[in-house]
UniProtKB/TrEMBL annotation:
One of its GO terms (molecular function) is DNA binding. It holds the Pfam family HTH_26. PANTHER family: DNA-BINDING PROTEIN (PTHR37301:SF1), DNA-BINDING PROTEIN-RELATED (PTHR37301). Transmembrane segments: none annotated. It comes from Geodermatophilus saharensis. InterPro entries: Cro/C1-type_HTH, Lambda_DNA-bd_dom_sf. Residues 13-62 form the HTH cro/C1-type domain. This is Putative transcriptional regulator.
């Protein structure tokens, strides 16, 4: 999956446990695990907002698009000057 979830990185930076994070965001620890492990199919904006508020970060700190092999092969080549 080309979207990588970096919740674990932000939690580690803040020395915050998954349990504390889940409670403050209003999620179950199991749902945080689904997000952290990249098994979520969608994230509500209200949940993303709550995660950013609790962690004091931007959405881009939590989510990153990483091209897979197919995306890389289809990417336009830079024009040579």
């Amino acid at each position: 999956m080309p979207i990588v979830v970096r919740i674990d990185v932000e939690l580690a930076r803040r020395k915050m446990s998954v349990g504390e994070f889940a409670e403050r965001v209003g999620l179950t620890p199991a749902n945080v695990a689904v997000l952290k492990n990249g098994r979520a199919k969608a994230v509500r904006f209200s949940t993303l907002e709550a995660m950013c508020r609790v962690l004091g970060c931007q959405p881009g700190d939590l989510l990153e698009w990483v091209p897979d092999e197919q995306d890389a092969a289809q990417a336009p080549q830079e024009a040579h000057r």
